[in-house]
Structure formats: structure tokens, C-alpha cells
Amino acid sequence: MIHNSHVKTALLLIAVCGSAAQTFAANGNAVLLDQIEGADTNRDGNVSKAELIAFRAANFSRLDRSGDGVLTRSDIPAMAKRFNPNIDFNKLIKQFDANGDGKITRTEFVDAPTTIFDAADTNKDGLLTKAERSAAVKAAKG
Q1: pLDDT, tens digit, for every residue of 56-87?
Q2: What is the tally of structural domains in the chain?
Q3: pTM above threshold 0.85
């Protein structure tokens, strides 16, 4: 059984790694940006880039539903598409897949660009404050 928390985790990780072209435009990013506080492990109200990267590392195995050590399209729950129908899984794979083999390794996943995080971090201090997250959510809602 796929739990909503697994889907939300997958989508959160996808959202904070998206391409610059879709930074805040894709439907669903507002909800996902609003939920990024799940990566705030020290509960200070801010999400640092280091916390986001640690969140990715801690959740890789959870997303690797087949347990084969790599993420492929089949590992992303079909329910994720219902939460955000604009997800283009082929583009997603390309964004993470540094060596172009069609699979995302733990290293590729953890070290992937943080485009949406970077766009939301308006003062470029490596922290997403509640105010920056709120502004990004507002921009995503258009």
C-alpha cells in the first residue's frame, strides 16, 4: 500500500529539484513548497539547503520501491501524477540522471540541482524562511 506520506515525500523532493523553466509555474508546486517544512529537521522554522540535501539522502530508500538501489519511473507512485498532473517524468529523470543511463542513483538524487529551492531563496543565504516559502507559494499560485 502506498501511503500519502510517501507520495508527498516524492513530490516534495521532485518539487525542490525542478527545472528553472517551471520554477513556480507548474500546478501543485504551491502545495509542495508549502510542505517543504518537512525537511526542517532542527525545527527552527527555516529550511537550509543542507537540511534539504539530508532529507533527500534520508528518503532515497523510501522512494526506491523496488529496492534495487536506483530510482526509475516505476518507483514513482502513480498517485503522484494525481497530486501534480503536470509532472513530466521523462524530464524529471533527465534532471537527476547525470550519466544518462535512465536510472537515478542515490548520489545523483542527493546531489541533484535545487533549482526551486534556489529560486525561493530570494536573499541567497542558503535558508528558506517562512516568509520566503510563503512568497514562493503565492508566486506558484499565480
Answers
A1: 888 888 888 889 999 888 887 665 666 666 66
A2: 1
A3: no
